[in-house]
Amino acid sequence: MKQLAYILLLFIIVSTGGCTVIDKDNPYDDQLHTLQVNAVYPDEYSNYLREGISVKIEDIDRGNSYTSKTDKNGTVRFNLTKGIYRILISDKADRDIFNGLADKVKLVNGDLTLNLPLVHSRSGAIIIKEIYCGGCTKLPFEGNYQSDKYMILHNNTSETQYLDSLCFGSLDPYNSQATNVWITQDESTGATIFPDFLPVAQCVWQFGGTGPLITGQRVIDTMFPLAKGGAAAIPGGFGTGKTMTQHQIAKWCDADIIIYVGCGERGNEMTQALQEFSELVDPRTGKSLMDRTVLIANTSNMPVAAREASIYTGITLAEYYRDMGYHAAMMADSTSRWAEALREISGRLEEMPADEGYPAYLPSRLAEFYERAGYVKTLNGAEGSVSVIGAVSPQGNDFSEPVTQNTKRFTRCFWALDKSLAYARHYPAINWNDSYSEYLGDLGGWYYDNVGHDFMSCRERIANLLLQENNLMQIVKLIGSDVLPDDQKLTIEIARVIRVGFLQQNAFHAVDTYVPLEKQLKMMETILYLYDKCAALVAKQVPVSRLLATGLFDELVQMKYTVPNDDFAKLDELHKQIDQKLAAVAQG
Q1: What is the pLDDT of residues 396-417, one digit of tens each?
Q2: Is residue 33 within 8 Å of 112, Cβ to Cβ?
Q3: How far apart are the C-alpha atoms of 305 and 458, rounded to whole Å?
Q4: pTM for this one?
Q5: CB 347 within 8 A of CB 319
Q6: Which residues contact 390 (CB under 8 A, 6 or more apart)?
Q7: Structure confidence by residue, pLDDT tens digits, 289-346
Q8: Torsions phi, psi for 409 (to 5 deg)
Q9: What is the DSSP letter of 215?
């Protein structure tokens, strides 16, 4: 009996010794403490501080999460039990994004105040929404897209976005294994199964305002600019100056590398380019222009297969230099000869012809070529670009033929050469009524910051005066200019100054062959200054004939020759002459 009592007593002692006393300072008790989080924006974005920013807190150990909104001071308070927490703040204001993360925040010794700095980033206009490897299903799940890799892009803005400045580059993800298995659907739940979902760490770079390709040609830089990494077309009939315009751009544009492709053109044109480029000096480096130029000669007497390959050779070389961080400009003269080579090869292969005998895949081939233009950021952080300028030679200057029409679909800059301007010795013979550039909206900010705040407004006024003149000339052709009122006569005269003194350019003149953007702006301001002063006098019934007698209009036509490119003082003198001579007219 005593043995039983001893055993029972020993069991009680052991059981009691195995129990632990609850520690009142246990960090995971139910006592509540206040965690105050202050969102701290970068100094330059302090104006984004506002009420209603979402703050999320995650309990690392328990797996619970809590969300609240900040007050107007960017502060939010949580009543939490002691523990270890993760704090996340994400604020998206338009395309500006502010993110903040604080991990393993210990709420142990009472209340805690945390100032959480936010990091600023800016989302692209175009973002990747989904990426698949092995194809993705069609909607509504009626099969699969037949492609090994498929990407869905999302427009991140409310405006139309163009893909010609979008570049894709993929990095091999550390955890991706592509077995090329098609995605499937679970028959019971209908859920989509992605066995080959491809997580890409870095894939898209989007550049908005990259700046124009500066050519020194006023009608291009001011009226119809081409962005770096963009694509432009120069259509024109025989003798309108396609080759001359491309030679001027190749000589003076601010690209690092020039790729000039003579595709099916005359041999003497390539010889002329080789001779002239060797004699000219690059104003940026002081070296021969040939040091930065690659000539690909494929003259009209060479095989058609080589003619087709010449375009691809040129664009591949341009991409090679682009990937090295250079800005390359490719001139293709002319894409019509390339399209004719496609037509001849297609005919020999007995393929079904389309419009005017060209192959049915002509649009896709043109798209594949022009869409290789772009502005990219390489993996080492350098920036490079490929700008494509393709000449088109429509038969009989007919812009409705297939090559010209399909080229317009894939380029955003269209420099239409006019036969009548060329025959009048007006070069570059780019018709300001038929040409256009869709890059103007993208480049407005660059001109504002780098050239002048009034550059775009002056350009718009110049374009409006040319449009008014075009409408008035329809009347003049019918009934003559004598019946027009003086304000309309003034519009015609000032438009003549714009056409002859600004848009027309002499490639053989030392001063006029290349004009910097600063001088282009000063010339526009001077022309508009004369127009405004004369318009005020015309409103006071001063005849236009007296204004023309001052000789000011002819002096402004000659200012492209008389004003040096590095000294604009004479333009200020012209302003004084305008004031003096028009004041004399007003008094007399």
Answers
A1: 889 999 999 999 999 999 999 9
A2: yes
A3: 48
A4: 0.67
A5: no
A6: 231, 232, 233, 234, 332, 334, 335, 369, 370, 407, 411
A7: 899 999 999 888 888 888 888 999 999 999 999 999 999 999 998 899 999 999 999 9
A8: -70, -30
A9: -
